[in-house]
Specification:
161 residues; Aminopeptidase; 5 helices; globular
Length: 161
């Protein structure tokens, strides 16, 4: 994983514009209807990194360098104060353990390097694959929540004692 740059726009637009990839992302972050929408999304993430020292980063194939998607930590609902884990992968990379690997790395980084005391994550109630990723990494289901007018499942994790 590495920080995002504007040159990542091409492959990330393919991810952000894919309705199936983005179907469980909240209304505010639904699929990009245009390259311009994807560029604005990418710039917001780059700006987030510059302001806060963390953001979503590019997930790349170790051998080819191909961008598979993004993952990382952002302010919850883009406002905070809590920090949220997020990840999205292009369809060819689903079901191969990449989301779990990225999630575990970001949780570790959040606690060890950023000194976080809690990380949250939300999933759409029907997104069983994402729920499995969170549970595999050690998140605990806290209950149902509402975000952007949609019902979500809220998860959290705290550093080991």
């Amino acid at each position: 994983m590495r920080p995002l740059v504007l040159a990542d726009l091409g492959p990330l637009h393919d991810v952000y514009a894919d309705r199936e990839v983005m179907r469980y992302i909240g209304a505010e972050d639904s699929h990009s209807a245009s390259v311009e929408d994807s560029e604005q999304r990418l710039q917001r993430l780059i700006d987030h990194q510059e302001r806060h020292g963390f953001s979503l980063w590019a997930i790349t194939d170790r051998e080819s360098g191909t961008i598979m998607g993004d993952a990382g930590l952002i302010l919850f609902a883009h406002k905070g104060p809590e920090i949220e884990l997020g990840y999205r992968l292009a369809k060819p990379y689903w079901g191969k353990g990449y989301a779990s690997e990225a999630a575990a790395a970001w949780v570790s980084h959040g606690f060890a390097e950023l000194g976080l005391e809690r990380i949250v994550a939300v999933t759409h109630p029907e997104n069983a694959a994402s729920q499995r990723v969170l549970e595999k990494v050690g998140f605990t289901f806290e209950g149902m929540n509402t975000r952007d007018g949609e019902t979500t499942r809220l998860y959290s994790i705290e550093p080991p004692s």
